[in-house]
């Protein structure tokens, strides 16, 4: 098996694409919430917001109108370059980006009213430190069961073999240990249809769902077999599994 260098992967993809999957044509049925709507609901117009693992800023820019100042950070310089280009083309003048590691946030204590994190690692202690008293943290993460039939078809994958709920439980426990008094968790496992094979192909090439996709002998044949076996009238069927944590400091 080829060794998977996650950091190098994100740096390479970040410089090419940011974290933008709007070109992927898919339909999800049964999602229990909308991440952007959840964040907007919890933010106030005077808030200062931090987005950890902002990628190319695709999720942050639409949320910026809900707050006074939005700051996005990412550990990948390539991601931040893409995010700044996106911001320059938008009308949002109160969005800033910085290259920074989530484990060492270069901000003073209590600067942010809200901290968010979508599909990226975070450090619970650092989140607690930079939040105001009573501030809110919102994170949506990918569950172990996500794209389960794809992982089974390839015999490998992100968190493949780990019991479902492991990551959610670990994140919730870390937040409680960091001093968050209210920690609310929920999850969903929704049906997802990729319109065509090229949509699934783009997703697999630009995410770590199947580490080293295309570099392992037999991947092309596995992909073709999966598409043939899971094609329906709605598209190529798989699943989207997510969990959401809302925590108050």
TrEMBL record:
GO terms for molecular function: S-adenosylmethionine-dependent methyltransferase activity. Keywords: Methyltransferase, Transferase. Residues 50-138 form the Methyltransferase type domain. It comes from the Bacteria. InterPro entries: 23S_rRNA_MeTrnsfrase_RlmA, Methyltransf_11, SAM-dependent_MTases_sf. Pfam families: Methyltransf_11. GO terms for biological process: methylation. This is Class I SAM-dependent methyltransferase.
């Amino acid at each position: 098996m080829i060794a998977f260098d996650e950091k190098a992967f994100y740096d390479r993809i970040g410089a090419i694409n940011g974290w933008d999957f709007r070109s992927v044509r898919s339909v999800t049925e049964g999602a229990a919430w909308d991440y952007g709507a959840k964040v907007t609901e919890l933010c106030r117009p005077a808030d200062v917001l931090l987005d950890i693992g902002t990628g190319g800023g695709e999720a942050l820019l639409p949320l910026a109108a809900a707050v006074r100042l939005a700051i996005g950070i990412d550990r990948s310089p390539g991601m931040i370059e893409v995010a700044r280009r996106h911001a320059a083309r938008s009308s949002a003048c109160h969005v800033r980006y910085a290259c920074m590691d989530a484990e060492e946030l270069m901000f003073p204590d209590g600067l942010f009213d809200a901290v968010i994190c979508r599909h990226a690692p975070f450090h619970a202690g650092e989140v607690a430190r930079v939040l105001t008293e009573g501030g809110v943290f919102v994170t949506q993460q990918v569950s172990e069961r996500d794209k389960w039939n794809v992982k089974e078809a390839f015999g490998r994958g992100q968190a493949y073999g780990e019991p479902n709920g492991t990551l959610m439980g670990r994140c919730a426990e870390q937040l409680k240990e960091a001093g968050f008094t209210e920690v609310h968790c929920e999850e969903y496992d929704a049906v997802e249809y990729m319109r065509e094979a090229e949509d699934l192909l783009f997703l697999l090439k630009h995410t770590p769902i199947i580490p080293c996709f295309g570099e392992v002998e037999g991947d092309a044949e596995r992909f073709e077999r999966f598409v043939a076996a899971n094609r329906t009238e709605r598209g190529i069927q798989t699943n989207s599994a997510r969990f959401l944590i809302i925590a108050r400091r």
